[in-house]
Amino acid sequence: MTFTGKGASFDARVNALVEEMSDALVGFQAEDGHWAFELEADATIPAEYILLNHFLDEIDDETESKLANYLRAIQGGHGGWPLYHDGEFNISASVKAYYALKMCGDSPDAPHMKRAREAILANGGAARANVLTRFTLALFGQVPWRATPVMWLEVLLLPRWFIFHMDKVSYWSRTVMVPLMVLEALKPRAKNPRGVSIAELFVTPPDEERRYLSNPTGHWLGEIMLAFDRVGRLIQPLSPKVLQRRAIRKAMSFVQERLNGEDGLGGIFPAIANTLMAFDALGYPKDHPDYVVARKAVDGLLVFKNGMGYCQPCLSPVWDTGLAAHALLESGLQDDHPVIEKANDWLVERQILDVEGDWITDRPHLRPGGWAFQYRNDYYPDVDDTAVVAMALHRADPERYRTAIERAAEWVIGMQSRNGGWGAFNADNTYYFLQHIPFADHGALLDPPSADVSARCICLLAQMGYDRTHPAMARGLRYLKNEQEEDGSWFGRWGNNYVYGTWSALCAFNAAGEDPDAPYIRRAVEWLKARQRADGGWGEDCASYWQNRRDEVKVSTPSQTSWALLGLMAAGEVDSDAVRRGLEYLVAAPRINGKWHEEYFNAVGFPRVFYLRYHGYSAYFPLWTLARYRYLRQANVRSTQYGL
Hints:
The protein is mostly helical. It has helices at residues 8-27, 44-56, 61-73, 91-103, 111-122, 131-139, 171-186, 220-235, 241-257, 269-281, 289-299, 317-331, 338-349, 383-396, 402-414, 451-463, 471-482, 498-511, 519-531, 558-570, 577-588, 617-635; strands at 39-40, 302-305, 308-311, 591-592, 595-596, 603-606, 610-614. The strands form three sheets. It has a three-stranded antiparallel beta sheet with strand order 1-7-6, with no helix packed on it. Strands 2-3 form a two-stranded antiparallel ribbon. The protein is globular and about 70 Å long. The model is unreliable at 1-6 (pLDDT under 50).
């Protein structure tokens, strides 16, 4: 198909690129209909995989040598390791990477190790690493256990109304903390068969260091929590062993109920790794069925290519499949096309209809109906995946998939929080006082509502025909408007960053039928236009999650440019100069092996702590954007009828 009139040659180039890249995306589809692109994090996950093997005495030199090659390749010019591509030195990532490389046989006198050690010592040494890193070091006997906060395993026996309860923290915190609390109670020592130590990374000898714990927020509540920790450390040895044994049984019952087959506890590496170490500490034989399945789960996260390898933090097949389906539907594939049918059938089979996951504690009368992020994670569906998948099914064939779509909408509506927004996995997970405990120095203990997730839920409901007067829609729109930043943008909790959040919000307002000329929408449009770079693209650095660095940009990226353009087009800006320049950037941007080239990280696990690079984003978001432009030009309309 070609265009006529002004800009026909450019539109023809867009059309050709849509056809080329949609064919490429189809080529990535698995035989059973799903997509699963790589999900890359920083140095900590491959480093922790190596450390896990040495804790368990399951050293695999061939695998670990490939992970070591990867760690050496991503070492920063500052000598240490960053949290994201081209990022600043991070003490925790650097300590783990150094220790892992030393486990793999790298000499401390090697130039790269010497540079890393100097950088770590210049930044205060290993004692300044975060809590989770110090837990690892305690397990290997590198620091005393007082370097970690007290974790009372016995709190698992307390009622839910108690000030701290596992139901009050996020799913990821819960699945990581429960087996970790077992380890803290038992205090096992890593096998560490090669006896590798990192005493050289401490400014003060570990046993002499007195400043391990700190107030994570600087708030007076943090000081009180530190005082509680000091008292708890004194009385913890007096706790009856019978209570500890009961708590261990309850913890392991929690773990075993949620082992989740070869997808692992919570479907995330830290929880699976802690599970394996807890099994080992409790004396499970290595051929125990639970141990075997957990080991398979962690090994299933490995990726190898070009003589290197890394360990993914988790797998993203449902997310990738839902978004890839949207991009291909936008590019012109019909609902009866085999590619779309296979994808939809695969997705429908994975809807969680019978398992009442951990979310049920906050919504006891709500029927299941969501999707998880991973292949299987039935205890932990999330509303973001659910909204994206249900919108794709609805777009393809609302009648054929009516039952699945309506169950999804029922669950999404039921998961709305009191303030009108939606969190990812939990409802009303806003126990903010818990952010002050010493363990919470990562700042991501909770799963409160966020603008981007809430926007996706509004998009789903609007696409299904819920109007703005419906209570869930009215409350959601009010929440979203209240979350707008002073400069006109929205914060992006799960993608980098304000561009992602603003794209999400503008799509929601368009789907809900809000006036595109409303002042708050115009402010968002102007913010996006002001953020456009000289090359026509958009970019936003991971450092933008620090408030004093929120405007930092290094380069334009295809993913962020796509979000900005989709947001602008949702606001009726298809014919604007900003959209044209952004499209020209995408058309000219280099492409490699069926994807736009993108090295920079494009998402966030925990702001300021853990970042991600979705390898699929550069395959389907630019395609989606170009196809959206093509559709709007063909139809001669200002914005799309779909939620996303």
